[in-house]
Amino acid sequence: MPFAALLFVAGSAAAHAAWNIRLKGTGDPETAANLAVITPGLIAGALVLGAWGLGLVQITPNAAALGIAAGTAELAYFMTLARAYAGAPISVVYPIVRGINPLVAVSIGTLLLTERLIGAQPWGVILIIAGLLALRPPWQGLRQGILGVALLFAIGAGVLSAGGSAIERLGVLEAGPLPFLGITWGVTGLLYLIVAQRKGLVWKTTPNLALTGSLIIGGHLLVMAAFAVAPLSVVVPLRESAILLVSGWGLLRAREASSAAQIALRASGAIAIVSGAALIALG
Prior knowledge:
With 283 residues, the protein is an all-alpha fold. It has helices at 3-24, 29-53, 61-87, 90-111, 121-135, 146-175, 177-199, 207-227, 232-239, 242-253, 260-282.
């Protein structure tokens, strides 16, 4: 894996952890996610549209179609993620979302993009599955209520994130990181504006929302830059190092676990997922 890609992925992981923590800490993740994305998304879209109009960038019909698909996937991802955060601790939701992501991404990469698992990568898949089971033991699955619904949204967010990453990988190869970023987030910002209007939300921004939105889009720019020089099945798992940052914040700062045993189980699950992702990324 090129060293530049490692830097891009590390920066993306840090930004990803930061905006997820900020989103969970708002008290109303659904509204915050909606309003945080609109302004920077529309700005990114307007910039790439203007550059295209001036002939500075080339946008093929295929790139435009992939951008619309990626932007729609981002909207669905953020809506499901916010619903998950509204009903469950971040130390549970985030590792599940990010753990499912590399499993689906690896499946897409190997089955559809002709990428192969080599070396220790199959063991990485096993570790991720073990980590997910530690975070949500099967014997707890019969328990009903808000937490169970939130975890279903977390699973959905993980699948959507992986699908969106696969689309982004193809789009970046077609159009380049910056143009594809503008297309994707212009679409997401526009769709979120429509959602806000349907919900009766006032389109406004604050310094906190602007920072969250900037971290979201800046982190995606870094991961798209990584997609330009490294395969999907490496970039996505390696980015999941953010799990340790977010889980640590949830367990230690937000005090989401109620017992030492629960802390140990969630921490071991997060470590297993990150270890598995590292094995997948490094082979």
